[in-house]
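WARN no homologs supplied; continuing
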Amino acid sequence: MLFEALIHPAMSTFDICRDETVWARFKAAVFSYQKERIQLATATPSKLPYVSGPLPFRFDKDGHHRFLAHVSTYRRTHVKVTQERLSKIQALGLLIPSAIIQSNGVATGMFNIFIL
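OK structure emitted
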């Protein structure tokens, strides 16, 4: 949900709750996430197969891949975003490794460019 709200995971909870803009992004992301999960679980026909064994959270391989299509970042080595979303991420400075997260959710700092 933090990714969906474009909030850096190192940002303090206090600052998320204090800033109206950041709080609005977080609140919208929470409701959007929950709505998508409800739609996923109640879709007709089902988007996910029933469990394939006695363990309640064990999907068969096909079900696992279908579920992962609805997971945007968790344990992913690559994350796909639209150009519009990438522009927002860049505008907030969230791709600058040496940046410092400000209380309004914007990261400030400079790129460290090394020429070998």
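The longest strand covers residues 100-101.
OK
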